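We include the entry.

. . .
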Amino acid sequence: MRTEEVQCGMCQQIITLQMPTMRGEPLRARATCPHCQHLNEFDIPALQSTSSFSTAGGSAQSPPATNAPSAAPPMPYSPQSQATAQVPAGVPPQGLTMASQAQYGLPATMQMQQTAVGVPVPELTGVQRALLVGINYYGSKCELSGCIPDVHNMKRLLVETYHWNPNDIKLLTDDGQNEAPTRANIIRNLGWLVRDAKPGDIFFFHYSGHGAQQEDPLHLEEDGMNETIIPVDVKEAGQITDDEIFQILVAPLPSGVRLTSVMDCCHSGTGMDLPWTWVEHRGWNEDVNPWHSRGDVQLFSGCDDSQTSADSSAGPISGGAMTTAFCNAIRARPGVTYVDLIDELNNEMRRKHMSQRPQLSSSQVFPLDRPFNLTDILPNQNKSIGRTVRQKFKARPNENKNKFLRNMLLAGGAGLVGGMLLGEATDDSPRPVVITAPPLIGGPRIDLGGLFGRGGLLAKGKGLL
């Protein structure tokens, strides 16, 4: 048997095929993508001495030499479709070669490549696309009220303030009015959002719903946990990790493409695995194991990785605290600078006595005294793309001895939704008994009643509180 890696023509994910070994004879193969269920057909050339890579509908080609610079975007990687090596103990040196990176368990698409910097700012192409995902989880124990209003609020901002064409804005909601936000649909539409991206294109992504954490199998996250978002069919299909979001949305973008994202959910601080985070009074802070890319990508997140994000019940219409503050700040001051926008978001949380602190992360460093908009494009400033490995981290397991909480944990590291099992959170049984419990990972004591009560603030969180 031989192994071939092929790329789904719909969602751009990598599919690993086991093929019969038939030297000198080309093969035509069909494969259903495990992510979006798209049926692909591939022309696999005759077996040669080097490995090959194929895209759906095309022939496989030999990859370039690993020591040669590559201008092509890295191929998407998903833990569900590509096996990874076991991570050895120890701390590898900074600036690993590709061979060393492979030794330390990095998938090929995370490994470093050299790339061009300082290319001219492109002219805008007129391509503007947005994907807005809002999930209220109707009928579940973790039902929310503000997520679908959030995406309609964001759509109005794009249309009324930035004059986007409504036909270029796609909504996924679980109220039956739009395509359902299942795992497959979210992944497929993430691929749609950035498909055929070219310099001068403008993209926007917004997610409002539950967020989570689960153990990072590569041990590259500083807390040992990947951040995730929770599709409406999470019980059957599972979560979507920040690694997957990066590989689908960020990695394929060439230099000269702008992607702005807003994620209003718990544990969303590094929800796209961008390498730079703005820290008040300190400036830009680079991740220990930064994952660099070519595109100009910015993420406004509702809180940092350790925090929960709340629904705001103020006023006649519910909405996420972060989304509401973001839209209101821009409507009030369309030319607001980045630094003033971040300050306003945090001040709004303080005014409402919320502990969450919105933050900004980016694919590259830029001055925050410039006005915020969706169309200023910063060409690639990263001399290399891929993941720089400096240190490995162990996951922080739940050491809580409380039997009641311990029995809530999902097997396999699936995590918690506000202290409740995902399975329990998505069934139709009554709401659970409210308890006050110590946190599972650090931080102050959390009143689950305050988070999940019907009045006041409703936690939009899933994850290890």
User: Anything to note?
Assistant: Residues 11 and 187 are 7 Å apart (CA to CA). The longest strand covers residues 128-134. The first helix runs from residue 98 to 103. DSSP finds ten helices and 26 strands in the chain.
